[in-house]
Fold this sequence. Notes:
alpha/beta, 2 domains, 9-stranded mixed β-sheet
Amino acid sequence: MEKIDILLATYNGKKYIKEQLESILNQTYTNFNLLISDDKSTDNTVEILKEYERKDNRVKIFIQEKNVGYIKNFEFLLKQVESDYYMLSDQDDVWLPEKVYKSYNKLVNENLDLIFCDLEVVDKELNTIYNSMFKFLKIDKRLKKYNDYRLIYLDNCATGCTIISRKKFLDLILPLPSTTKFLVHDYWIALVISMHGKFSYIDEPLIKYRQHGNNEIGTDKVSTKFEKFPMVRNLFINVKIERFTAFVNNDKVFSIELKKLNKEALEYFIDIKDKKYINFKGLTTFHNIYKYQNFSKYILFFVIMNIPILAEILFSIRYVILKIMGKR
Length: 328
């Protein structure tokens, strides 16, 4: 069994951290270091961590001098990796006993560079909300269709707390882009490896992914809270503008073809931002960005981006129906 570095970022996690630590330290695969970086917690998270560091020599704690945010906290941990393999962990989930073993086994046996797995989405008491994150996000079919950057390019599907990867790609991955919350550490790691290595997934939930209202990133669909269509459209476009800006500013990892598309995509989303009726410009760029999505998603975003007047009418009708049904 080869050594694995498990990277756990914490911040004010006292409520759930013990349960997570127990689930990691009691894995069937035992040859790992658990590297924990605390982002200057103000509760007693650090005291709990030190208790586990005293009990188990696999645990090593780092404490940030000031609050740096979760992206920089994970970047710090990635710089501490010494083993050939590493995994990422959040502070409030529960790992199933064979998560490390099954992840490592598939990675090595199939000579892959990154593996991610499905998640069981649970509430704060670990009651099941969704049996499969893949099915909830409706990406299960796309996972079977693509095994390269086409799967990852537009939207991430590799949740960080499910990832195992090889250290050898860290020179390309670091430093992590940190100018936008719409391109976080796990998305960047998966995207870089999808373009420079081989990745796959395990079609099985190996983690209980806890949703409790304070998650930095969760399953909640923000756009469903909006009452007006322009707010939804602006959100979608702003996400893409910030993301493609980050791509353009960190272009060393992209092929010549993707560098060109990144710039065209950024120009396209900036150009359509204030369009209110119909857009005829940059349709080829739209197609090149979205062509690897499923057909229904392609049509949905074509209408939202390029025929906003129609999308607003459909949104209003849908909103009224949902309100009548008591779902709004």
